[in-house]
Amino acid sequence: MNTYRTHYCSDLSIQNLDQDVVLSGWIDTMRDHGNLLFIDLRDNYGITQCVVDSSNPNFEQINALNHETVIKITGKVLKRSSDTINTSLKTGEIEIVIKAFEILSKSDILPLPVNSDIEYGEEVRLKYRYLDLRRNKLHKNILLRNKVISSIRTKMLKRGFIEFQTPILTSTSPEGARDYLVPSRIHQGKFYALPQAPQQFKQLVMIAGFDKYFQIAPCFRDEDSRSDRSPGEFYQLDFEMSFVTQEDVFEAIEPVLFEIFDENKSFSRDKSAQVGKYPFPKIPYHESLEKYGTDKPDLRNPLLIKNCTEVFVDSNFKIFANKVKKGSVVKGIQITNTEDKPRSFFDKLNDWAKEEGEAGLGYITYQQGEYKGPIAKHLSKDKLETLKLNEGDSIFFVCNSIKEAQLFSGKVRDKLCMELNLLDKNSFQFCWIVDFPMYEIDEKTNKIQFSHNPFSMPQGEMESLKKMDPLEVKAYQYDIVCNGVELSSGAIRNHKPEIMYKSFEIAGYNKETVEKKFSGMLNALKFGAPPHGGSAPGIDRMVMLLADEPNIREVIAFPMNQQAMDLMMNAPSEIEKDRLEELGLKLIDKD
Asked: CA-CA 20 to 30 A from 277: which of 314, 381, 411, 506?
């Protein structure tokens, strides 16, 4: 028999009445009712109410204990009186009358309470993360994370994928972010890089003849923190497949994602929550920017953006007409049922646009058969009718260069959705963004660079690279998006050396540089590589969505703060001088 317990703190019910039991756990709360002391004893599994009266010789000693002291109790299971039953607890119909107890570990006064979900400052929470993790909400989030990862592993193995562990110490690669570098003691002056992703290794696994690879992969990127991105490290479901097209990759991962979200959809939502059925919608990159103003569209928002440029060509609304002549476009976001909206509704949106750095937000409404608003009087009836407004409709306009108009109209779309409470918060809606451009212009250098993954296969292969404008070349690259959050990037890989040389040449890499930086991959491609592709949905972001948490740190056990510091373990830390010398390093005095 276990020395510390016969049951967990979630196990006992009226089926156990009059049994002698042993429980161990933390003192979650204590309630002193004079001659009667109630203790909620908590372990990983739940809470059991324990009671001791003043006739017990240990009464005063127990009453003097701090919350979070770890104790072992021996007692008898009794039924609670009908007026004290707690239906929110599994053990809410019973209580344990304490016969004996033992202090296993005393607790000092806590720097933050753990028996409530009151929010404390980030600094305190992360410094005492082990206490923060005792809080019910956070504890449940980490258990959800475990459930998701376990289920993913089971589903991938069931579908014939082989689990791998790829190197952590590797070489630098152009993944788009800064590498974390590790100095070599043996080879002074040289550095390892922590992998931004197992990109090259998983491709090498395919070249090695393994048909289906997956890994719950740690990835390391030296980039700034965001609410949906943890600085330093993150985990992803990394997978790759041989002899596949883009559609084959989609068909392989869609059921896994659907099942994971369907299994856990009620964690933070009600049981009626919906998960979008597969096959998931496929939206070309440029269409996504035009319709949604983003390449990460939230399909729960029913509003769409439409091109209204022609309405303002040669119109009397000179502000827009003149900008259109110079190449600007006009985007419109149409909403319905605005008859009862006061003028203040429109003024508030106009003020918001100014706060966002725009000149304002023009609009037209259609009420009682008339077009109204500050722009309507400047447009002819024919122009107005092309807007196709119905009674009670309003439309808001954004005029700017294509890129700026797309991005700000996307913000307007989100703002209107929020103001009108149109978002379906009780669902998970997936989509694929496809047909990404292979290249883009670096705004800082004005040079061509890879826009996505440098190891992707261009659509049209070598012919498109030779004959097309590089900025017109599309790649077999794709993102999976859920509720406006990018879960993963992926691609069909370039498996032909001659195409790899050419694609990197366009991005400014000469043959010698390619062979030096990617010798492992390049050499492998020369010995017969299958067509292959994959993706890597982010574990942290999946759990964040399922838990309905606005910040990714709430689903990571030991995250860093926004400055990429571990306040609990005091990392990063200074290194002793003799250790630096051993590594051949010398710190530069910035002063």
From this structure: 411
Q: How many CB atoms lie within 10 A of CB 255?
A: 13
160 CB neighbour count, 10 Å cutoff? 11
Residue 557 tokens read as: 């056990």
Q: Tell me, rounded to whole angstroms, the distance of Cα 437 from its chain centroid.
A: 24
Could you list the beta-strand ranges (E) of 54-202.
70-79, 94-105, 162-163, 181-183, 191-193
Residues in Cβ contact with 322 at an 8 Å cutoff, skipping those fewer than 6 apart: none
> What is the pairing mode between strands 282-284 and 305-307?
unpaired
Residue 208 contacts by C-beta under 8 Å, 6 or more apart in sequence?
A: none
Please tell me the distance from the alpha carbon of residue 255 to that of residue 263, in angstroms, as a whole number.
Answer: 12
Helices (H) and strands (E) in the chain, counts: 18, 24
Segment 356-380 shows an average pLDDT of: 92
Which of 446, 442, 441, 478 minimizes the C-alpha distance to 459? 478
**553 DSSP assignment:** G
Classify 268 as helix, strand or coil.
Answer: coil
Encoding tokens for residue 27? 């003192």
- At 312-330, the pLDDT tens digits run 999 999 999 999 999 999 9
Q: What is the dihedral of CA 110, 116, 120, 125, to 10 degrees?
A: 60
Measured CA distances, 446 to 84, 219, 289, 468 (Å): 71, 30, 22, 19
| Rounded Cα–Cα distance for residues 107 and 121 (Å) | 22
pTM for the predicted model, two decimal places: 0.92
Q: Among candidates 337, 334, 313, 340, which has minimal Cα distance to 325?
A: 313
Amino acid at position 432, single letter:
W
Strand partners, 271: none
Taking the CA atoms of 19, 24, 30 and 33 in sequence, report the sign of the dihedral they define.
positive
Per-residue pLDDT reduced to its tens digit, 478-498:
999 999 999 999 999 999 999
Given a contact cutoff of 8 angstroms between Cβ atoms, the answer to whether 27 and 43 are in contact is: no
Kindly give the residue spans of alpha helices, DSSP state H, lying in 160-224: 199-207
Q: Please, where are the H alpha helices in 451-492?
A: 461-467
Token couple for 51: 């009671």
